[in-house]
Amino acid sequence: MSRDGASGAVTEHGGRLAAARLLFPGAPEPFLDLSTGINPRPYHLPRFPADAFTRLPEPEALWELQTIAAAAYGAASPEMVAAAPGTQILISLLPNLLPWRDVAVLGPTYAEHALAWQAAGARVTVAESLEALAGHEVAVLCNPNNPDGRRHGRDALAGLAGRVRLLVVDESFADFEGPERNAAPLLPRPDLLVLRSFGKSYGLAGLRLGFALSLDHIYA
Q1: In whole angstroms, how far apart are CA 113 and each of 92, 104, 125, 180?
Q2: What is the mean pLDDT of residues 88-109?
């Protein structure tokens, strides 16, 4: 759940199973939450050494994580990968790291993108097509999209990126699609930033791990 500071509106998200059970006490069990798009079959994890939970990771471990993510997502270098505790934090941070304030979001889509830019003082337009995104400073889209499943090919994304200052492609559900539409192989280029979510496809949502893939000087 999040609150739009400008209007006071509340955006509801899935995952609140305790609240859902209170609203529907007669619902059969197990209660299936389809709203968050999380794989219900978690990745089989090995046993972790005890010190993994008692000390902070070394910088070399972060570099290893970036290297693995770059290989998994098709980025040319680990230097293009920034790890964060969840994609949601990246969505909230980006409007405060980037200077542009004319933003178009391809909708209807995940509401947090527009809310985050609005909270940072941006003028946000909800567009209905890729063509309508062009000409704005920042264009934001989810690929594949939530909730309607719209998909855009890599060539279309490359063309759109060339017509804006920055294209933000949220690929939180891309692992369910396969690699053919993944935008990361288009990097390095200064007009593209790709967001990836680790936990959804691996069934490890509680791990809270997400990535931003881009040229590092975008954040300067």
Answers
A1: 8, 10, 11, 24
A2: 96
